[in-house]
């Protein structure tokens, strides 16, 4: 990707980026995310053992507080030098308007919310969370598919809402939500405390992506036999028809079809996560600046 004409590095634009010896792509170190007392609302920052608390609300809250601990170490997200520069510059444009508010990514399963979310968190200097992972940790079950199997979708949705409620009291987070998080109005009341961004991916591309990796981790797709692509496409179409209006409530929409057209093609599968993240920052900036103008 070529840097846009007229873009010049700002002081500190390369902060957090490492240039490998001998050239090549730049990389950003993404620290392992941990919930710390500073990031927790007061009721989650208590020091008592949740398993010894007689208060079920406190016990559940404390279990959520420990749910994001990861092993020490870092993950690396690689970008080209041009992409890294643009990401850093656009992040600097957005941050003053964002003012510490959380960013919630919504969209269908397989739309890339986790991958794009990690890039956005890195360049914004935010922490990243995956709401599905938080639910898994909160209920002590290793996968969403198993939660559906052992309990029910309603049980999962109840815990998902509790997780989003807790996250909504925090700041400077990028949150990748589950594909169905948008169906409950209460969840929007939590997410609207921050900025919501819809990653809109064509269903055909989603079905091919999901069919290629399998549907075992997708409980809403793993119940029928037949051709993986055909059943994925049919179910995704049905789910999208149910959720389309809800996704449209997002503050910003990132259309992969639109990005591909701007690049002169119609193949969304060759778009890099960094390219999508750049478009997300552009859409976030557009929404936030328009909102600021109206307010003033």
From TrEMBL:
<comment type="pathway">
    <text>Metabolic intermediate biosynthesis; chorismate biosynthesis; chorismate from D-erythrose 4-phosphate and phosphoenolpyruvate: step 5/7.</text>
</comment>
<keyword id="KW-0934">Plastid</keyword>
<protein>
    <recommendedName>
        <fullName>shikimate kinase</fullName>
        <ecNumber>2.7.1.71</ecNumber>
    </recommendedName>
</protein>
<dbReference type="GO" id="GO:0019632">
    <property type="term" value="P:shikimate metabolic process"/>
</dbReference>
<dbReference type="GO" id="GO:0005829">
    <property type="term" value="C:cytosol"/>
</dbReference>
<dbReference type="GO" id="GO:0046872">
    <property type="term" value="F:metal ion binding"/>
</dbReference>
<dbReference type="GO" id="GO:0005524">
    <property type="term" value="F:ATP binding"/>
</dbReference>
<dbReference type="GO" id="GO:0008652">
    <property type="term" value="P:amino acid biosynthetic process"/>
</dbReference>
<keyword id="KW-0150">Chloroplast</keyword>
<dbReference type="InterPro" id="IPR000623">
    <property type="entry name" value="Shikimate_kinase/TSH1"/>
</dbReference>
<dbReference type="InterPro" id="IPR031322">
    <property type="entry name" value="Shikimate/glucono_kinase"/>
</dbReference>
<keyword id="KW-0479">Metal-binding</keyword>
<dbReference type="GO" id="GO:0009073">
    <property type="term" value="P:aromatic amino acid family biosynthetic process"/>
</dbReference>
<dbReference type="InterPro" id="IPR027417">
    <property type="entry name" value="P-loop_NTPase"/>
</dbReference>
<keyword id="KW-0418">Kinase</keyword>
<keyword id="KW-0057">Aromatic amino acid biosynthesis</keyword>
<keyword id="KW-0067">ATP-binding</keyword>
<keyword id="KW-0460">Magnesium</keyword>
<comment type="similarity">
    <text>Belongs to the shikimate kinase family.</text>
</comment>
<keyword id="KW-0809">Transit peptide</keyword>
<comment type="function">
    <text>Catalyzes the specific phosphorylation of the 3-hydroxyl group of shikimic acid using ATP as a cosubstrate.</text>
</comment>
<dbReference type="Pfam" id="PF01202">
    <property type="entry name" value="SKI"/>
</dbReference>
<dbReference type="GO" id="GO:0009423">
    <property type="term" value="P:chorismate biosynthetic process"/>
</dbReference>
<keyword id="KW-0547">Nucleotide-binding</keyword>
<dbReference type="GO" id="GO:0009507">
    <property type="term" value="C:chloroplast"/>
</dbReference>
<dbReference type="InterPro" id="IPR023000">
    <property type="entry name" value="Shikimate_kinase_CS"/>
</dbReference>
<dbReference type="GO" id="GO:0004765">
    <property type="term" value="F:shikimate kinase activity"/>
</dbReference>
<keyword id="KW-0028">Amino-acid biosynthesis</keyword>
<keyword id="KW-0808">Transferase</keyword>
